[in-house]
Each structure stands twice: as C-alpha cells, then as structure tokens.
Specification:
Layout (H helix, E strand, L loop, with lengths): L19 H8 L9 H8 L1 E2 L44 E9 L10 E10 L4 E7 L4 E2 L7 E2 L2 H19 L5 E5 L4 H7 L3 E5 L1 H9 L7 E5 L1 H9 L10 H22 L2 H12 L2 E3 L3 H11 L3 E10 L5 E6 L2 E6 L1 H13 L5
Length: 344
C-alpha cells in the first residue's frame, strides 16, 4: 500500500462528514467575532447520555459472507501488556468524533466512523486521525472484536475505554453525529472543492456523475457519495482505507469553505449544524475549547489513520474480515501523531 499523506487539504445512509466539520466550525465561531452565538450554541447542542452496557452473553460478531474460512483463532492473537496514558498526551485535548451507520431513535448501532481530533496546545496544531472500523482490538468485559462493536456494546464511554486500553491514549470528549441534513449544510456553503484521481473520476463517471480528474467543485449529494465510497482507491489508499482518506479530504475542504464564507453565512449555518450533534462537554468546557482554538494554527490540518502501513495483517477471525494490528507499533504511532512528532 502506498504511503499515507501527512498533510491533506479531506448503503443509502447519509452517514459521512463525521463531525469534524462541526467541531471545527464551532471552534471558529468566537474567532469570527460572533460571540453572541455562544448562548445559542449552549442551548442547541444535544447531550450524550450514558447507555446501559450490553449483556456480554448478547455480544455478536459481524460476520462477512465473502470472508472465507478463518485464518486465525482468537487465542492466536497476541496482545502486549496494557499501557498507561503517556506524557505525549499531556497538553493535548482529544475529541472523538463518532458516526453511526443508522441513526434510529432508541437504537444504537456500530460506529461507522471514528476520528480523533487532537488539539495540541504545545504545538498549536490540530490533527485528524481516523481509526479503521475493522481494527481488531480488546474490548474490556467482552470478547476481542472489531473496534466499531464497542460503541454498540457500551456507547461512547466504552469506545473511549477501548482506545485507552489498546493505545494508551485518553479521550477527553466525545461528539456523536447525526448525518441527516449534511447535504443542505454543504449546499448552503456553496459546495466544496474535491480533487479526484483518474481512477476515482472513472468510477464516479460510471455512476452517472459529471466529474473529471483533478479538482471539482461539488455539492452535498456528490460530497456524501464520495466520502462514503469504499471500493475505489485514492492516490495513496485502497478500499476502506481510501474511504477514510476521502472523509478527511471532505472535512478539510468543508473547513476551508467555512473559513471563506461571510460571518452572516457562518451564523446562518449554526442552526443546521448544531441540530446534528450531541456531546458530553459541559458549557464551560466548550467555552474553554473555543478560547483555545483562537491560538491554533488551523491553516493545515494533519491527516492520519490507524493502523499505519506495515503494522497489521489482514485476517479472518470468527467469520469477520479484520485488521489485526501490531499494537506496540500503532500505540507509538498514535501517540506521536497526537504529540505532533510523527514522521512517516
């Protein structure tokens, strides 16, 4: 697989755009001079509720029909010892953005997308780190499973625990995303610029879209189709790895589009944006992040993913196609990404 891009400018469910767009838009409100919007912000954002843990006897494994015979047993996977939070995480605020496959009232599905937004107060940088949903991990209280099962079994709090147990990284806050309505948000921004490879352009042309290789100015419908597409390669990533890279590309393009619109448009978008998210941040914590964001270097967003190249194997376990990671390598990589010291 080709090398990842360190700095990038990011079925039928309307599921992508993972709420990075939302968090970054909110972080810019005060910087844009719209201080009065904070009160509206406080009253409009939903609150993440604690969920009851699933009975371990009811845990399930999301099997793949085309996975073939198992290549490993769960007992053959070797895990290193747990690690405590490292000093690399100090001075950093980590926000986990969680998107679901299906946002049905009263239902909790597996997390379709997971992106850590890491705000580094020491380096004034913001980094986006996608966690592949097929990553095979340890889930406290349950069998080893894909990481996206943790959200279904115990909500955001269990997913946070899984990330800390496996990677030694503490998640400070969570943002859950309802994807309904993102098409209109993109359209209200006047669309976004997306750069397509020749392979991507050919793929989407076959789907009936009028796009070309290179930069295309697109609107909500195509942006979401682009971001959720799994089975076509980007310039550096293939299959679901390509999907996460496309997600980050769309997020970055949306962020740039949000910066460029007028203050009036920024304010007009708030109602549409805030209806789509829930968080476990208190009002005080939100305001602290708003203040912190004013000192951040937001011209370029770091773009990464876990697992890193050469640090995992493709395996079939319990009928699931999974990525079995070298946790020692990926722990170090994730902590360096957050610290701003990662070199590919």
């Amino acid at each position: 697989m080709a090398d990842q891009d360190k700095k990038k400018k990011r079925g039928g469910h309307r599921r992508i755009l993972i709420g990075t767009l939302i968090v970054l838009a909110v972080l810019l409100i005060l910087a844009g001079g719209a201080a009065f919007a904070v009160n509206h912000l406080m009253s409009s954002i939903g609150e993440i509720e604690e969920v009851e843990l699933l009975d371990p006897e009811s845990e399930d494994f999301e099997t793949d029909e085309d996975a073939g015979e198992d290549s490993m047993t769960p007992e053959e996977v070797e895990w290193p010892e747990d690690v405590e939070e490292t000093e690399a995480s100090s001075g950093v605020t980590n926000i986990l953005l969680i998107g679901q496959d299906t946002r049905t009232a009263g239902a909790r599905e597996r997390s379709d997308s997971m992106i850590i937004i890491s705000i580094n107060d020491d380096t004034n940088e913001v980094n986006m780190i996608s966690i592949m949903r097929d990553l095979y991990v340890q889930i406290p209280g349950y069998s080893d499973n894909r990481i996206n099962a943790a959200y279904q079994f115990g909500g955001a709090s269990l997913l946070d625990e899984v990330i800390e147990k496996n990677f030694g990284v503490t998640i400070d806050y969570n943002v859950e995303i309802d994807f309904t309505g993102f098409e209109s948000v993109i359209d209200l921004l006047g669309g976004v610029d997306i750069t397509l490879t020749s392979t991507e352009a050919s793929y989407f042309q076959a789907q009936g879209y009028s796009v070309t290789e290179g930069t295309n100015h697109v609107y909500g419908e195509f942006a979401l189709v682009y971001a959720r597409t799994r089975y076509v390669s980007t310039a550096t990533e293939a299959n679901d790895f390509g999907r996460t890279q496309r997600q980050r590309a769309v997020i970055t393009s949306l962020f740039n589009a949000y910066i460029d619109v007028s203050l009036t448009t920024k304010i007009a978008l708030l109602d549409d944006i805030l209806e789509l998210i829930s968080t476990d941040m208190s009002n005080t914590e939100i305001l602290s992040l708003l203040y912190l964001a004013q000192s951040m270097d937001l011209d370029e967003l770091g773009s990464y993913r876990i697992p890193v190249d050469g640090s995992y194997t493709n395996q079939t376990i319990r009928g699931m196609s999974v990525l079995v990671p070298d946790l020692t390598v990926n722990r170090a990589a994730l902590q360096e990404m957050i610290a701003g010291t990662y070199e590919e």
